[in-house]
Design a protein that fits this description.
Shape: globular
Distance between the termini: 75 Å
Strand content: 5-15%
Helix content: 55-70%
Strand order of the largest sheet: 3-4-5-6-8-7
Largest sheet: 6 strands, antiparallel
Number of helices: 32
Number of strands: 11
Length: 778
C-alpha cells in the first residue's frame, strides 16, 4: 500500500481521529500553552476534561505529546488530590505495551494536567483485519495485550474499558494499551467519560455482566472484556448482537446466557454469506481449544472465568505450543491428541515399530499417566489461583465506596484494608503467601519499605512451611525481599537474600528467566556496596544463561539489557576496550528493537566511556544524543536527565568550556536539590567542586566537596568508594589552600579505596593519583 494513501488512527486519552497524512496536520489554536508545551489542537474531551495534541514550546526537542487537563470547575481540593494520586499510580505503570505517562503539573489556573505519550496506530481489530493476520499472529498480539493488563492488575489497577480503540497497534506491530482514566480504579465517577444508564463509565459492548448490572468491578471484569476482544479477533464479530441498542436491560439480559461458540458463529455467517473454503478453514481452526478458551473467559459468574489475566494468556500459550489447555475437561483422547500433535514426526516414524511391539499398551499407558499428572498439576495451580482471585475480590470489596464510607477510598485505603483481610484470612497458606508477596511488592514500589519487608518476610516463611526451604517459590519471595532491603540500604541482608535465591534457583527452577533475574539483582546490590569486580563475572554468567535459553544469534530485550550492564561494569573497572565492544553491541540491539529508553542509556554509557578515555569530542557527541532522547522521554526534572547534564558538563570542563560546564551543572543540581539528599545530588556536587578547582576557586570547591562527602556518607558509608572519591576531591581543595595536614589523609585514603575497588585504569583512580603526586610536591 502506498504510504501516502494509508490511513491511520491517532489515539490518545479519550478520542480517536481517523486521519490521512494531510488531515493529520495539527491545527493551531493560537499560542495557548500548558507548562512548557504549546497546544496544537484539541483531539478529545469528556465529562472531566479535555485532551490536546501538544509539542514542547521551548523547542529543546521535537516530540508531540497528548495532554489531559481537568475541566474548569472540577479543581476542588479532593478532585485535585485524587488526580495527583492517580498520576502517581499511572507513573508506576512501566510496561512496553502501555502508553507512558511522561510528565504532569498544573496550569496557570491551578488545574492539574497529565502529559501522555502520543501513540499513532490502528485499533487492534482494524490492524489485524487490514494486515490479514493469521490466527497465530493475532493470538501473539493478544498475549502482549494480556501482559499489559496483568501488569496493571499487579499494581492494583483495573482498566474497566478494554476495547479495540483503547488498544492501538503501531506500524511495527506493537500493541499499546491506552486510557486508564483518572482514578478509574478507586473512583469510577471521575473517569471523564459519558456515564451509561447504570451510572458507571464503560463501553457496554465489551463490559462484563457485573459492570452492566452496576455491581462491584474487579480484575475478573477485565478478563471478561479480554474474552470479548479475543472473540472478535478470532470470529470477526462480537459475541452478542445487542451492539448500538443503548438498551441496558437488553445488555444485562444478553450477558446472562453463554454466547455462541466462535466456530459456530463463523459457520452461521459462512452459510449466510457463502464464504466457502476460507470460512470452513477458519471454522475448523477455532473449533476445540479456542472455542473453550474464549467461552471460559466469557463465563457469566466471575469465579468460573480464568482466575487472572495471566492464566488466560498462559492457556493461549498452551494452545499455541500444542499442550493441553485448562479450559478443556482433559479427556484422555484429547490429551493424547495434544501429545500426538506436538510429537507427530516421532510418532509417525515409530508407528511401524510400535505396531510390531507388544509394549505398545505400556507406552500408551505411561503417556496417559503423564498426561493425568500434568492435568492434576494444572488443576492444583488453578485452585490456588482461584483462591488468590477470591481474596483480591474481597480486597476491592473492602475498598468499595458504597460499603466503606461516603468519600471514595484512597490507594492507601485499598492497601490497608486489603492487607488486613489477607493477614487475617483463613485461606490456604500457599494462596496467602502469593497475596502477601504481591502486596509487599506494591508497598515497596510506593516507598513503604518497612511494611513491604514485614509482608515479604511472612511470605517467605509461609512458602518455606508449605513447599520446603528449597522450593523455587521461596526463591521468588526472597528476591522480592532483597529488593526491598536494598532500597532500605540494608545491603548485607539484601545480598544474603539474593544469594540464597540464586542457590535455590540453581538447583532447578521451572521458570528459566528467574535465575538471570536474581543474578542481576545481586549485581545491583554489589554495585551499591562498591564490590565491582564480581559484577563482571555475574553479568557474563547471566549472558551465558540467556544465550543458552534464546540462542546465540537472538536479539531480544533481556539480552540487550545484560550486554549493556556488562559494558557498564567493564567501564566502571576501566576496561575500556571490552566495555566499548559490549556497549556498541547493546546499542545496535536496542536500535534494532526500537528501545528508545535503552538506547539513551547505552549512548550515555558510551559518552562517559569516551570522555574518560580522553576522546572528549566523541564523548560529548554521544552524551548530547543521550540528552536529546531523554528529554523526549522523561519530564524535565527527571534524574535521568540530570545525570546526562552532569556528565556532559564534566566533558565540557575537560575541553576547557568552563562556562558551558557551569550552566549544565547548575541545571543538574537544580533538578536534584528539591528531592533531598541522594547519590545523584552528591555526585553533581562533587562535579561542581572539581569545576570550582578548574576555575581556581578552592574555597567554593571545599564547600561543594564537603557537602558531597557528607551526603555520600549518609547514602552509603564512610568507607564506600563513592565517599572516598568525594573525599579525595575535598583533599585537593584543602591542598590548594595550603592545608596539607588536613588534605593528606583524605588524599591517601581516597586513592587507596579507589585503587582497591575500581582498579588503576579508571578516571577516578587516575585523578586521585595525580592529586597524590601534587601532595608529594608540596
Amino acid at each position: 500500500m502506498d504510504p501516502q494513501d494509508e490511513r491511520a488512527t491517532i489515539r490518545t486519552g479519550d478520542a480517536a481521529l481517523p486521519t490521512t497524512q494531510e488531515e493529520g496536520k495539527p491545527k493551531t489554536e493560537g499560542e495557548r500553552r500548558i507548562g512548557p508545551y504549546k497546544i496544537l489542537q484539541e483531539i478529545g474531551h469528556g465529562g472531566m476534561g479535555s485532551v490536546h495534541l501538544a509539542a514542547r514550546a521551548d523547542e529543546q526537542y521535537q516530540r508531540r505529546v497528548a495532554i489531559k487537563v481537568i475541566k474548569a470547575g472540577m479543581g476542588g481540593t479532593e478532585v485535585v488530590g485524587r488526580f495527583r494520586r492517580e498520576r502517581q499510580i499511572l507513573a508506576g505503570l512501566d510496561h512496553p505495551n502501555i502508553a507512558r505517562l511522561l510528565d504532569g503539573g498544573a496550569t496557570e489556573q491551578g488545574l492539574p494536567y497529565l502529559v501522555m505519550e502520543y501513540i499513532e496506530g490502528r485499533p487492534l481489530n482494524d490492524y489485524c483485519d487490514t494486515h490479514r493476520l493469521p490466527i497465530e499472529e493475532r493470538l501473539r498480539i493478544f498475549q502482549h495485550v494480556c501482559s499489559a493488563v496483568a501488569h496493571a492488575h499487579r499494581n492494583l489497577i483495573v482498566h474497566r474499558d478494554l476495547k479495540p480503540t483503547n488498544i492501538l497497534v503501531t506500524a511495527e506491530g506493537v500493541p499499546r494499551l491506552l486510557d486508564f482514566g483518572i482514578a478509574k480504579l478507586l473512583n469510577p465517577e471521575l473517569t471523564g467519560e459519558a456515564p451509561t444508564a447504570t451510572g458507571l463509565a464503560m463501553t457496554p459492548e465489551y463490559a462484563s455482566p457485573e459492570q452492566v448490572r452496576g455491581e462491584l468491578v474487579t480484575t475478573s471484569s477485565d478478563v471478561y472484556s479480554l474474552g470479548v476482544l479475543l472473540y472478535e479477533l478470532l470470529a470477526g464479530q462480537r459475541p452478542f448482537d445487542d451492539e448500538g441498542t443503548g438498551d441496558v436491560t437488553r445488555f444485562a439480559a444478553s450477558r446472562e446466557r453463554e454466547p455462541e461458540k466462535p466456530s459456530s458463529a463463523v459457520r452461521r455467517r459462512m452459510r449466510a454469506a457463502k464464504e466457502g473454503r476460507d470460512g470452513r478453514k477458519l471454522q475448523r481452526r477455532l473449533a476445540g481449544d479456542l472455542d473453550h478458551i474464549v467461552l471460559k473467559a466469557l463465563r457469566t459468574e466471575p469465579r468460573q472465568r480464568y482466575a487472572s489475566v495471566r492464566e488466560l494468556a498462559e492457556d493461549v500459550e498452551r494452545h499455541l505450543t500444542g499442550h493441553p489447555v485448562l479450559a478443556r475437561k482433559g479427556a484422555w483422547l484429547y490429551l493424547l491428541s495434544r501429545f500426538g500433535r506436538r510429537h507427530r514426526r516421532v510418532l509417525a516414524a515409530a508407528a511401524v515399530v510400535l505396531a510390531l511391539l507388544t509394549g505398545f499398551g505400556f507406552n500408551w499407558w505411561s503417556e496417559r499417566e503423564r498426561a493425568a499428572a500434568e492435568r492434576e498439576r494444572a488443576a492444583s495451580e488453578l485452585a490456588r489461583a482461584e483462591g488468590v482471585e477470591q481474596l483480591l475480590r474481597l480486597v476491592f470489596t473492602a475498598a468499595d465506596p458504597e460499603s466503606v464510607r461516603a468519600q471514595p477510598p484512597t490507594v492507601s485505603d485499598v492497601l490497608e484494608k486489603g492487607t488486613a483481610l489477607v493477614v487475617e484470612s483463613d485461606i490456604d497458606s500457599a494462596s496467602k503467601a502469593e497475596l502477601l508477596s504481591t502486596l509487599g511488592t506494591v508497598y515497596g514500589n510506593l516507598g513503604d519499605h518497612d511494611q513491604a519487608e514485614s509482608l515479604l518476610r511472612e511470605a517467605v516463611r509461609l512458602r518455606q512451611s508449605v513447599f520446603g526451604e528449597r522450593d523455587p517459590l521461596v526463591a521468588l519471595s526472597l528476591s522480592a525481599l532483597g529488593l526491598v532491603l536494598q532500597s532500605k540500604g540494608d545491603y548485607d541482608e539484601a545480598e544474603e537474600a539474593f544469594r540464597e535465591a540464586i542457590a535455590i534457583s540453581s538447583e532447578g527452577d521451572p521458570e528459566p528467566t528467574r535465575l538471570p533475574t536474581y543474578l542481576n539483582n545481586l549485581a545491583g546490590v554489589l554495585k551499591a556496596k562498591g564490590e565491582l569486580q564480581e559484577i563482571i563475572t555475574i553479568y557474563e554468567k547471566v549472558l551465558a544463561l540467556q544465550r543458552s535459553e534464546y540462542g546465540d544469534d537472538t536479539v531480544n530485550v533481556n539480552i540487550a539489557i545484560t550486554v549493556n550492564n556488562l559494558g557498564s561494569a567493564l567501564l566502571a573497572r576501566g576496561d575500556y576496550e571490552r566495555a566499548e565492544t559490549a556497549l556498541l553491541q547493546a546499542l545496535e540491539m536496542r536500535r534494532e528493537l526500537k528501545l528508545v529508553s535503552g538506547e539513551s542509556t547505552t549512548l550515555y554509557n558510551l559518552g562517559v566511556l569516551y570522555r574518560d578515555r580522553g576522546e572528549l569530542k566523541k564523548g560529548e557527541d554521544h552524551l548530547r544524543q543521550a540528552l536529546e532522547l531523554r528529554q523526549g522521554l522523561y519530564a524535565a526534572d527527571h534524574s535521568k536527565v540530570a545525570a546526562v547534564l552532569r556528565d556532559l558538563g564534566a566533558c565540557l570542563r575537560l575541553q576547557g568550556d568552563l562556562a558551558g560546564a557551569e550552566d549544565l551543572l547548575r541545571q543538574a543540581i537544580a533538578i536534584e536539590r528539591p528531592k533531598g539528599d541522594s547519590e545523584d545530588l552528591a555526585t553533581a556536587l562533587r562535579a561542581q567542586a572539581v569545576l570550582a578547582m578548574a576555575r581556581g576557586d578552592s574555597a567554593a570547591a571545599e564547600a561543594s566537596a564537603r557537602e558531597a562527602v557528607e551526603m555520600m556518607t549518609g547514602v552509603f558509608s564512610e568507607d564506600h568508594w563513592r565517599t572516598a572519591d568525594a573525599s579525595s576531591v575535598l583533599g585537593e581543595a584543602l591542598l590548594a589552600q595550603g592545608r596539607v595536614d588536613e588534605a593528606r589523609p583524605l588524599l591517601e585514603s581516597g586513592y587507596e579505596v579507589l585503587l582497591r575497588v575500581k582498579g588503576p585504569k579508571t578516571r577516578e583512580s587516575r585523578e586521585a593519583q595525580q592529586r597524590l603526586a601534587a601532595l608529594g610536591e608540596v
